[in-house]
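Morning F.,

Quick status update on the modeling queue. The single chain you submitted on Monday has been processed. Sequence for confirmation:
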Amino acid sequence: MNENRDQRMVQYLGRIREKGSRVRYCVVGAGHGGLAMAGHLGIMGFPVSLYNRTDENMHAVRWHGGIKITGAVEGFGPVELATTSMAEAVSQADVIMVVVPATAHRFIAEQLSPCVRGGQIVVLNPGRTGGALEFHRILSAGAADKPVLIGETATFIYASRALSRFEARIFRIKNTVRFATLPAYWIPEALSVLNQAFPQFAAGDNVLSTGMENIGAIFHPALTLLNAGWIETTQGDFDFYLGGVTPSVARVLERLDKERVAVAAGLGIHTVSARDWLYLTYDSSGRDLYEAIQSTISYRGIRAPQNIMHRYVTEDVPMSLVPLASLGNMLGVPMPTPEMLINLATVMHGKDYWSEGRTVERMGIAGMSVKAIRQLVVGIE
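Structure tokens below.
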């Protein structure tokens, strides 16, 4: 950003911060996560609008006037507007929380591009790997004259499930969720706004750091693919994490995690292991990843997908494993485990996840040196 845009952004963020509990939120997406977030925001007293591409999914929210939340949070969260019009949904919003599968990030960026106004904060919940980079590239192409702040979280703040079109259960709110902006020097200012609703959001180093802390890349696709037989036989009638993670499966997850950490190191990023993440997020401990997962109380009752055509594969393979492997290949870091899982998913689904996925080209960093990438995310012109 140039100096003039920075000055304008400071003014915008100052005005938003002063609103306190009157900060207006738009939640984009009315699935498991979107319903939980919109309902929780409403319970906390923030004005909320809700966008979803499919209108029939919004009828119940409109009829009831909001969302019923149970579990770790109990109550009814009013929703002021539930609409399929992106322009209408974001017109009054100060903060736009994008809570959709990462495969929809490109579509949402394209839809937002003509609608955003200067000073709005857009947060990908989560960005998966490279989300903010790709989203920024698309949004900037259509809204280059508008100083919009793009950020992402490393993981989704809730463990939640939709119970109906207007009800969601929040199993757990994570202790700490890393957050970063692009460029990174806006992190403190953005957090001063977001922490009023989400004190769990904590500063990450930059969007490379949050992207590398994508633990969903480790747990979701491998666990689904390695349990394909059990899932298809039982239609997911077992506890996904506690039943699906055996010592042998855990060893595959640990190898995959080791390669993720190696890519992060290649970018000059320190990131926690999956086992340490469980301890920091859920207070789960164990001598190895298997024991740490089995001691995670919040995973009790979370059932497996009913089939393998699930977002744990359809989203996390192209938007988590493909960018991880693409980055590794560009950096010269061997990626045998993610490559194996991408190929396995490609065979099982009959889809070319390599061509559909988020690559370094789509992130806009292909061929760049580590120095240049780090300067980009920090904000050095």
